[in-house]
């Protein structure tokens, strides 16, 4: 836990007994050709290795360069090596390796997220484009407030958030959190909280933080869905904060964790509370921030095939 002074006191009204298996990406179709099992597509290793840049080890795409002695390297590395071949130190010149470019063109390779379940096979030159969009590509760690480089599928990240970031984990689709901060005058960008919710067999990240919006300090709460954007659209959520006969209500669609925490925050896609209002909601002498945020996650009905939301589950 970081050393900021926000504490989160929560009580959960949701059902604790929800026994749902973690989301598992199942390949929705067999690999082309049918016969190969999803994990068993053997890449053409030797040719594939030839197409790996010996300097940066990324796959090479045209223009592929070579030195006068035939050592290859990618176009990105070529601009960095000051005209010296990194392998033999000879002058590099400006020689394309057309033969290797042609070999690459004839290759068909499985998506590099094959081991994560992607069954697709692509011609070499369109593979990269797919991989950038592949729905099996690993997710970045959704934890904000530190530069964390962990990537993986959702079950791995859930474990990582719990064990390494000591994030609070809750089961249920309703929540009732109290955010307490003893010195609300200190609004720093680094002040934030993350709680993970598990409901409908999915995981959601509830973010709460304080930051400067222009000249004005604000608090913001928003939900991110641990999965892809198209799945996120199956869910909605509401957040409520208030006291003394006033309240603010936010209703929205959770954003995918594919969208960075910062991107969501900067688009104000959540419940934004001005500090004055937050202090008013806190009651007392306005020296301490005490915000009670309640909320609910529900599944939208348009998807009739599976997992229909039963209202009695939502308390
Ligand atoms: Zn390279
Ligand atoms: Zn060389
Ligand atoms: Zn893929
Ligand atoms: Zn992390």
Structure description:
The protein is of the alpha+beta class. The chain has two domains: 7-25 and 138-314, Sandwich (Apoptosis, Tumor Necrosis Factor Receptor Associated Protein 2, Chain A), CATH 2.60.210; 45-133, Herpes Virus-1 (2-Layer Sandwich). Helix content is 18%, strand content 31%. It has eight helices and 18 strands. It has helices spanning 45-50, 75-78, 98-105, 124-133, 154-163, 229-232, 261-266, 275-282, and strands at residues 7-11, 65-66, 72-73, 95-96, 108-110, 121-123, 139-140, 151-152, 168-171, 174-181, 191-199, 202-213, 216-225, 235-243, 246-252, 255-256, 271-274, 289-299. The strands form five sheets. Strands 9, 11, 12, 13, 16 and 17 form a six-stranded mixed β-sheet that branches. A hairpin with a 2-residue loop joins strand 11 (191-199) and strand 12 (202-213). The relative contact order is 0.14. The model is unreliable at 1-6 and 10-41 (pLDDT under 50). One zinc ion binds next to helix 4.
Concise synopsis of the structure shown:
The chain is of the alpha+beta class. It has 2 domains: 7-25 and 138-314, Apoptosis, Tumor Necrosis Factor Receptor Associated Protein 2, Chain A (Sandwich), CATH 2.60.210.10; 45-133, Zinc/RING finger domain, C3HC4 (zinc finger) (Herpes Virus-1), CATH 3.30.40.10.
């Amino acid at each position: 836990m970081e050393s900021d002074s926000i504490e989160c006191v929560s009580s959960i009204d949701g059902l604790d007994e929800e026994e749902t298996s973690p989301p598992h990406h199942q390949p929705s179709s067999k690999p082309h050709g049918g016969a190969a099992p999803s994990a068993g597509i053997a890449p053409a290793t030797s040719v594939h290795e030839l197409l790996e840049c010996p300097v940066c080890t990324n796959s090479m795409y045209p223009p592929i360069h070579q030195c006068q002695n035939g050592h290859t390297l990618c176009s990105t590395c070529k601009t960095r090596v000051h005209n010296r071949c990194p392998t033999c130190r000879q002058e590099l010149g400006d020689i394309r390796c057309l033969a290797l470019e042609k070999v690459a063109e004839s290759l068909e390779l499985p998506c590099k997220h094959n081991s994560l379940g992607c069954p697709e096979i692509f011609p070499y030159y369109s593979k990269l484009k797919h991989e950038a969009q592949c729905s099996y590509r690993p997710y970045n760690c959704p934890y904000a407030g530190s530069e964390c480089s962990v990537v993986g599928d959702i079950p791995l990240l859930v474990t990582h958030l719990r064990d390494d970031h000591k994030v609070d984990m809750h089961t249920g689709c309703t929540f009732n959190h109290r955010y307490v901060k003893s010195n609300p005058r200190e609004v720093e960008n680094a002040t934030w909280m993350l709680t993970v919710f598990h409901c409908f067999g999915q995981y959601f990240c509830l973010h709460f933080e304080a930051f400067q919006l222009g000249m004005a300090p604000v608090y913001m709460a928003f939900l991110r869905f641990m999965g892809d954007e198209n799945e996120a659209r199956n869910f909605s959520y509401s957040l409520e904060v208030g006291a003394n006969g006033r309240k603010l209500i936010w209703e929205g669609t959770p954003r995918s964790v594919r969208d960075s925490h910062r991107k969501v925050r900067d688009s104000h896609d959540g419940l934004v509370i001005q500090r004055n209002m937050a202090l008013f909601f806190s009651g007392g002498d306005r020296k301490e921030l005490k915000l009670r945020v309640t909320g609910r996650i529900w599944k939208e009905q348009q998807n009739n095939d599976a997992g229909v939301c039963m209202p009695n589950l939502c308390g």
